[in-house]
Backbone:
């Protein structure tokens, strides 16, 4: 296959089809984050003073905890797709790229656990 | 695998590669190109600052004492600068992301309208960042 530029009607089509899945996941997670941002901004700006009672009171509600967690998970998935694109585009050395990708995944999983801890501490 | 594709001798195709890093300074991107690379830069910036965001959220929520500590950290000028960088990144990524979503449903994909929306994205994120900067540094 190497170096023969067989692009056209006789191209050998290969692929794992994860391109479409990631593309769709990035859109869905983006929409979740847009909705969360709007709700957070509205509730933040409608309160007249930024106090602990008001802020923690918002996060103390069960529906907001769950919504926050879902949005954080959406963020981490979204960040994974984006960071994977960045590593694939700029890091050509396979070993280094794989290392960075694995580190990104592990880091995002750790962040997800951290987010759970933060949200359920209120 | 190579048997599946017939070898056809043909003229060498011209190869177009990405520009080299050293050529960046004299390469003028169109507005849509600027928005595209800023989408990537702002995304990476927010990924890099993720622990800062989580740490500040933790301080602000854990207890009344940690909230007071949070307010102390927040009032430092350097924290404000970091927050401002995050705000710009978020505004830029958010608005160009919304532009992406509209383009996915074939809104504003023609050259002229795409150029207009690209410019609006840049302007919106600068205005948002400017307003937050004025608020953070106490202009109102």
Residues:
């Amino acid at each position: 296959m190497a170096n023969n530029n067989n692009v056209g009607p006789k191209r050998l089509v290969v692929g794992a089809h994860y391109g479409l899945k990631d593309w769709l996941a990035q859109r869905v997670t983006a929409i979740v984050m847009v909705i969360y941002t709007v709700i957070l901004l509205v509730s933040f700006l409608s309160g007249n003073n930024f106090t602990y009672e008001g802020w923690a009171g918002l996060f103390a509600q069960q529906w907001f905890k769950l919504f926050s967690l879902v949005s954080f998970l959406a963020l981490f998935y979204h960040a994974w797709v984006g960071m994977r694109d960045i590593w694939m585009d700029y890091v050509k050395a396979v070993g280094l790229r794989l290392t960075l990708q694995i580190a990104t995944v592990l880091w995002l999983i750790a962040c997800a656990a951290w987010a759970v801890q933060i949200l359920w501490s209120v | 695998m190579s048997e599946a594709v017939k070898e056809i001798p043909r003229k060498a195709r011209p190869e177009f590669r990405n520009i080299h890093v050293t050529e960046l300074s004299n390469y003028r991107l169109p507005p849509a190109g600027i928005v595209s690379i800023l989408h990537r830069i702002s995304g990476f910036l927010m990924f890099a600052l993720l622990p800062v965001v989580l740490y500040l959220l933790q301080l602000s929520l854990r207890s009344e004492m940690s909230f007071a500590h949070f307010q102390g950290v927040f009032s430092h000028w350097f924290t404000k600068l970091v927050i401002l960088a995050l705000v710009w990144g978020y505004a830029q990524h958010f608005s160009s992301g919304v532009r992406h979503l509209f383009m996915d449903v074939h809104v504003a994909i023609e050259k002229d309208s795409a150029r207009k929306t690209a410019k609006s994205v840049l302007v919106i994120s600068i205005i948002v960042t400017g307003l937050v900067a004025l608020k953070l540094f106490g202009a109102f």
About this structure: The mean pLDDT of chain A is 89. The domain at 18-119 of chain A is CATH 1.20.1300.10 (3 helical TM bundles of succinate and fumarate reductases). The radius of gyration of chain A is 20 Å. The CA atoms of residues 48 and 119 of chain A lie 23 Å apart.
